[in-house]
Amino acid sequence: MLIGLQNVTFEFGARAIVSEATWHIQPGERIGLIGYNGTGKSTILKLLVGQYLPSKGTVEKGRDTTIGYLHQDLLSFDTNETITEVALGAFERVRALEKEIEQLGIELEANPEDNDILIKYTDALHELDVLDGYNISHKAEEVLHGLGFTTKDLARPYKEFSGGWRMRVLLAKMILQAPDVLLLDEPTNHLDLPSIEWLEKYLLHYKGSVVIVSHDKYFLNKMVNKIVEVYQQQLNFYTGDYEYYEVEKVQRVEIQQRAFENQQDYIRQQEKFIERFKAKASKAAAAQSIQKRLDKLDVIEDVQIERPNIRINFAVDKSPGKVLVDLKGINKSYPTLTILENAFAEIERGDKIALIGANGKGKSTLLRIVAGMESFEGERVWGHNVDESFYAQHQLESLNLNNTILQEVQECGTKKTDLELRALLGCFLFGGDEIDKKIKILSGGEKARVALTKTIISKANFLMLDEPTNHLDMATVELLAEALTKYDGSIILVSHDRYFISKTANKIWEIEDEKIIEFKGDYNEWLEWKERMAKQKAANPESSKPAANKANNIAVKKSAPIATPEVKAVPNGPIDKELQKQIQKLQKALLLLEHSIETLNKEKTEIELQMADPTIYSDVTKFQAIEKSYHDKNALIRSMNKEYEIAFNDLADLESKM
């Protein structure tokens, strides 16, 4: 064990964050720490590093365990050093050795015959070599480049950078320190997509353990092999990625609910017997015996849903024309940077566009050009009957600071009742008396959520959204994505949340070579296309590029895979016997898998019938054994289904070659 909690209870005033929680972090684990906003994820990280002390229990830590903790409070750090110097601060021992070697070198020059100085000098050189001290500058530059910094940036002072970029520097320093345990609180919040992808690749090969608090499902699915959920003051453990957690959580809730209902039926039946026969002399002993059994019974808790299953619904007042926005010959540049040059694009009715790419490419600038909030050269033609609404975290000055949250959304002019508005605000984490808070006392994140709520109830048919998922938990991101999928209007959005993009977008825009590149398809199709393009480029650097349209913009359209030369079998030609054998082998394997899956499903049904028997819950050991058997069967069925899917795809590939 590296670090952990042992029977820890921690409260803020009268509010318990965790109660009797035990959690041991082992070497090599990559853990996702999840839970609704406000459940205490960041608090638990602070308990692990000793910033908070538990009310009860102990926080345990190995004697030599080193911990790196990335969190928002680090932004108070400031310095005139370059970002490279800040990152090199990770190598304290190496820097100390460099100074020691320099000093010993001077002493050795003055006293070349001093054997003691020579031994110290040689030992210091050896230690520097063991620590790979000659490569620290290269390592620092590699990590900083990976996190999005250019070569020119490396010599710039740390204090010149904004908060998001400063956080990247501190993340780079922490990665270079290579502690035994990395605790990362929302590490992707300040990263663009290329930097997130780089961080994923880096952490997947990281030798230490990693604990991540994140609302990015894609990131968690790629990164973690264990989920720890903070739920109702307890820590619940799931061995798998976030996708596994989602499936397993539902099953656990179903099992617990069924077990609770069955046990309650059993208790009611026994209580009826006791009530009926406790006064009868011939049955009194039996009634007392049953009462004793009930008193010793381990009561199964009812499943309580912490958040109501609310849905966000958009309303559209009027339908726009076919083209909402037409961008013609757009030019946009700054003194040291050109964003767009003679760029063309159209937004049509029904488009749901995600603007993606590295920071600094001009995504938010283009969004503001579309919204008419940014100066530019060229022509922006607004379509017929377009009713737009723009959301950005920096566009919060329109909020009336003297209004309460409820008053602010009431003034949007919708016909929603106060009850409906309260339900919608609940989706955006404003519950109970919180809706009576004044806007002026809200944090930046809370104001952003109010502004997003106003955008949603505006009845606009064209939404422009800049990072709408920041400050939302995963449940709310899910609700918003679902609502935007059903939304009848058009959308253009900027987001680094890949799950959100994959659920909402049917087109991808990317700024490349000062042009707007359009891909007609969803995010996953775009990723596949990019991968094919990269492979084609690697195989043939001079391969033909996608055709340019009349405006010299590259319009990449969703289409069939890139054509490759295909050797057709000559009719009545020789049959590939080896291929035929492979096909037959896979066909047999599929039949066996089908039979096994069918058998397992029957066994699962039999277990469910046993669990429906109320008497089983009087024997805790028997219930636990059956519950474990149920879990094991489900895991095996999932594994075999995946195996079947892989075999089926392999068979289809082989048959296509016949």
Molecular structure report:
With about 650 residues, this protein is of the alpha/beta class. The protein contains 19 helices and 19 strands. The strands form 4 sheets. Strands 14-15-16-12-17-18-19 form a 7-stranded mixed beta sheet, sandwiched between helices. A 6-stranded mixed beta sheet has the order 5-6-7-3-8-9, with helices on both faces. A 3-stranded antiparallel beta sheet has the order 2-1-4, with helices on one face. Strand 10 and strand 11 (about 335-350) form a beta hairpin. Helix 15 runs parallel beside helix 16 (about 500-505) and helix 18 (about 575-610) runs antiparallel to helix 19 (about 620-655). The chain is globular. The relative contact order is 0.08. The model is unreliable at about 545-575 (pLDDT under 50).
Brief rundown of the structure:
This protein is α/β, with parallel strands linked by helices and 658 residues long.
**Count, helices:** 19
Q: What general form does the structure show?
A: globular
Q: Which structural class do you get from the secondary structure elements?
A: alpha/beta
Let me know the largest β-sheet: 7 strands, mixed
User: Could you tell me the mean pLDDT?
Assistant: 83
Protein traits:
658 residues, alpha/beta, seven-stranded mixed sheet, six-stranded mixed sheet, 19 helices, 45% helix
List the helices and strands and how they pair.
Blueprint: E1 3-12, E2 15-25, E3 30-34, H1 41-49, E4 56-61, E5 67-70, H2 83-88, H3 92-110, H4 115-130, H5 136-146, H6 163-177, E6 181-185, H7 193-204, E7 209-213, H8 217-223, E8 226-231, E9 234-238, H9 242-277, H10 281-296, E10 323-334, E11 337-348, E12 352-356, H11 363-371, E13 377-382, E14 388-392, H12 405-410, H13 418-427, H14 444-456, E15 462-466, H15 474-486, E16 490-494, H16 498-504, E17 507-512, E18 515-520, H17 523-539, E19 555-556, H18 577-611, H19 620-656
Parallel strand pairs: 3-7, 3-8, 5-6, 6-7, 12-16, 12-17, 14-15, 15-16, 18-19
Antiparallel strand pairs: 1-2, 1-4, 8-9, 10-11, 10-13, 17-18
